[in-house]
Amino acid sequence: MVIRLFVLPLVVLLGVLLAAPALAAPAQTPTDDGAGTVRTEDLRIDVRDGPARDQPQSLDATLYLPARTPAPAMLLAHGFGADKRSVAGEARSLAARGYVVLAWSARGFGQSTGQIALNNPDYEVADASQLIDWLAARPEVTKDGPGDPRVGVMGGSYGGALALLLAADDRRVDVTVPMITWNDLGQALFPNNAATGPLATTPAVGADAPDGVFKRSWASLFFGIGTRTGSGQAPDVCGRFLPEVCAGYVEAVRTGREPAALATYLQRSSPASVANRIQAPTLLVQGENDTLFGLDQADANARAIASGGGTVAVAWFNGGHDGGSPDSRTNARISAWLDHWLLRAGSAPPADFTYVLPSGVRSRSAPTQRTVTAPAYPQVAPRTGLALTGDEQAVVAPAGGVPGSISSIPGLSALAGGAAGGSGGGDDGDDEDDGGSGGSGGSGGSGGGAGGGGGASALLGRLAADLPGQAATFRTAPLADRTIVSGSPQVRIAVTTTGSAAPGAPAPSSGPVLFGKVYDVAPGQNGAPDTRSLLGNAVAPLRLPAQGGTRTVTVTLPAVAATVQAGHRLEVAIATTDQGFASPADPAVYRIALADPTLSVPEVPGEQTGGSTVPAGPLVAIGILLLGVVAAVVVGRVVAARRRRRDLEPGGDLAVDPELVDVPLVVRNLAKQYRNGFTAVRDVSFRVERGQVLGLLGPNGAGKTTTLRMLMGLLRPTAGELRVFGVRVTPGAPVLGRIGSFVEGPGFLPHLSGRANLELYWAATGRPIGEARMDEALEIAGLGTAVDRVVRTYSQGMRQRLAIAQAMLGLPDLLVLDEPTNGLDPPQIHAMREVLKQYASEGHRTVLVSSHLLAEVEQTCDHVVVMHRGEVVAAGEVAELVAGGQVAVAVAGDRDRAVVALRDAGFAAEADPEREDVVIAESGSTETERAAVVRVLVEAGVDVVGVGPRRRLEDAFLALIGEESR
Question: Rounded to an integer, what distance in angstroms lies between the CA atom of residue 706 and that of residue 534?
Answer without folding.
Answer: 49
